[in-house]
Specification:
By secondary structure, the chain is an alpha/beta fold. Helices cover about 30% and strands about 15% of the residues. Strands 3-2-1-4-5-7-6 form a seven-stranded mixed sheet, with helices on both faces.
Length: about 220
C-alpha cells in the first residue's frame, strides 16, 4: 500500500493534532523561558556549594545608590566597574551605569552576555585576566571563602584590575578575614554592614580605600 493512501480515523487525527499543538506550545514556552533567563533581569538561585549568598534588597539598593553617586561624581564616559563574586549586585549596578563587568566562576552568569567574565581566583599567574588589567575605576568584591588563601589571591586580582591608585575598592566579607585582608590591601573598615537574604553565622562588614560611608544612605 502506498503511504499516500493511508487515512487516519477522524478521532485519531484529532488526538494527533492536539498532541502537535501542545508540543508547539511547550516549545514556545521554553523559548520564552530561555529569553527571560538572559540579560540583567535573569534570576538565579544561590548555589551553596559555590558559597553563594545573595544580598538583601536593602543592601543592593544601598550599594546601588552609592555607586550612582560615585559615577556621577566622576562624570567620565569611560568609568568602568568590576564586580568580583557578587552577582546579586549586577542588575542593580547595571541599572545605574552601563559599563560593568561581572567576574564569576559560575558559568550560569554567562547569561549576562559580554558583561560576564569567567574567572577563578585560584589562578595566580601574572598575566591572568591580562586583557582586563588596569581597566577599572571601581571594584566591588565579595570573595566566596573566608580564608587567608582566598584573601591573598583575590587581593592580587584586585590590584591587577585597578586602573590606577585612584581606583576605588569596596570589599565585603566576614569580619574574621580582617587581618589577612588588611595585610594585602590598603583598606579600612567602614560603618556600612551588608546584609543577606539569609541570616549567616559570620558577622559581615565592608572595607574600602575611600570614605564609602559618605555615599551610603541609611547605613
Amino acid at each position: 500500500m502506498d503511504n499516500d493512501d493511508i487515512t487516519l480515523p477522524a478521532d485519531t487525527l484529532a488526538i494527533l493534532n492536539e498532541f502537535l499543538a501542545e508540543r508547539t506550545q511547550r516549545e514556545h514556552e521554553e523559548e520564552q523561558r530561555m529569553i527571560n533567563k538572559t540579560g540583567k533581569d535573569a534570576h538565579f538561585e544561590e548555589d551553596w556549594q559555590l558559597s553563594q549568598f545573595w544580598y538583601s534588597e536593602k543592601t543592593k539598593q544601598a550599594i546601588g545608590a552609592a555607586v550612582a553617586k560615585i559615577v556621577q561624581e566622576h562624570n567620565t564616559p569611560d568609568f568602568r566597574i568590576a564586580l568580583l563574586s557578587c552577582p546579586s549586585l549586577y542588575a542593580t549596578v547595571k541599572d545605574v551605569h552601563e559599563q560593568v563587568n561581572i567576574f564569576e566562576y559560575d558559568q550560569r552568569f554567562a547569561a549576562y552576555g559580554t558583561d560576564f567574565v569567567h574567572y577563578d581566583f585560584n589562578e595566580v599567574s601574572a598575566d591572568y585576566l591580562v586583557e582586563y588589567h588596569k581597566c577599572y575605576d571601581l571594584i566591588i568584591a565579595d570573595p566566596p571563602f573566608l580564608s587567608e588563601d582566598c584573601m591573598t589571591k583575590m587581593s592580587r586580582i584586585i590590584l591587577s584590575l585597578q586602573r590606577n591608585r585612584a581606583s576605588k575598592v569596596v570589599f565585603c566579607s566576614g569580619e574574621v578575614v580582617e587581618p589577612w585582608l588588611l595585610a594585602c590591601l590598603p583598606l579600612h573598615k567602614c560603618e556600612f554592614r551588608p546584609e543577606h537574604e539569609r541570616n549567616l553565622g559570620n558577622e559581615f562588614v565592608s572595607y574600602a580605600n575611600f570614605n564609602f560611608d559618605h555615599y551610603i544612605v541609611n547605613k
